[in-house]
Design goal:
By secondary structure, the chain is α+β, with helices and mostly antiparallel strands. The protein has one domain: Aminopeptidase (3-Layer(aba) Sandwich). It has an eight-stranded mixed beta sheet with strand order 6-7-5-4-3-2-1-8, with helices on both faces. The longest helix has 19 residues.
Length: about 190
C-alpha cells in the first residue's frame, strides 16, 4: 500500500513548491487546465503568497515521501453557504487509480471535516476521463457548455456538483465498487 500525504502547500518546502510548478507546466497536465499558459517562477510564487492571505482557498500538495505527485485545491470556500469548488491534477505518470482514491478522500474531507454541503468543479469538455470519473462519483451537471476564454482561446466546460446528502447515500457502495483502487493507497490529510 502506497502512503499518500496531502500537505498544505504553505507548509511544504521551497523545492516541493517548485516541483508542483514544474509538474503543472508539463504538457500532459497543462493541456487539461482551463488556463494553459506556462506558469513562471515569479507568477507561481505570487500565487503562493496570495494563498497566505486567503480565507477562501486551501491548497494541498499530493506527496509520496517527499515526491510531489499532484495538487488539490479547495476554492471559493463559502462557510456561510457551506459550499466550495475544487481542482485536482496529477502527474500523468502517477495515474491509474490514484485519481479515484484522491477524489474519494477529498470529497470525504469536504463533507466530513470542512462540514460543507455542496462541492462543485468545472471540467473541460475535452477531458472525458475526468468527466466520467466525476459522474461515477455522483456529480451531476449544473451548467453545460460554459464558454471560458483562456489564453485567447474559447473553451467549453461543464460545471458539476455533488451534495453531501448524495455523497453520504452512495459513498459505501462507491467504495465497494472502487475498492481495488482504494486499497492501493493510504491517504491522509496532514
Amino acid at each position: 500500500m502506497m502512503r499518500i500525504l496531502l500537505r498544505r502547500i504553505l507548509e511544504c518546502s521551497d523545492q516541493q513548491i517548485e516541483d508542483v510548478r514544474v509538474l503543472r507546466n508539463k504538457p500532459g497536465v497543462r493541456d487539461f487546465m482551463i488556463n494553459t499558459h506556462y506558469i513562471s517562477k515569479e507568477e507561481h510564487l505570487d500565487w503562493v503568497d496570495r494563498l497566505r492571505r486567503s480565507k477562501h482557498q486551501i491548497v494541498y500538495l499530493v506527496l509520496n515521501e517527499m515526491d510531489v505527485y499532484g495538487l488539490i485545491s479547495f476554492n471559493q470556500i463559502d462557510y456561510f453557504k457551506k459550499e466550495c469548488d475544487f481542482g485536482i491534477y496529477l502527474d500523468i505518470e502517477r495515474r491509474g487509480g490514484l485519481g479515484s482514491a484522491l477524489l474519494y478522500a477529498l470529497i470525504s474531507h469536504v463533507f466530513d471535516k470542512l462540514q460543507l454541503e455542496v462541492i462543485s468543479c468545472d471540467v473541460l469538455k475535452t477531458n472525458d476521463l475526468a468527466y466520467e470519473l466525476y459522474r461515477r462519483y455522483g456529480f451531476r451537471e449544473h451548467l453545460v457548455d460554459i464558454p471560458i476564454h483562456s489564453n485567447e482561446k474559447k473553451k467549453l466546460t461543464t460545471r458539476l456538483f455533488l451534495s453531501a446528502n448524495q455523497w453520504h447515500t452512495n459513498k459505501t457502495d462507491l467504495y465497494n465498487i472502487e475498492k481495488h483502487k482504494m486499497d492501493k493507497y493510504d491517504i491522509d490529510f496532514e
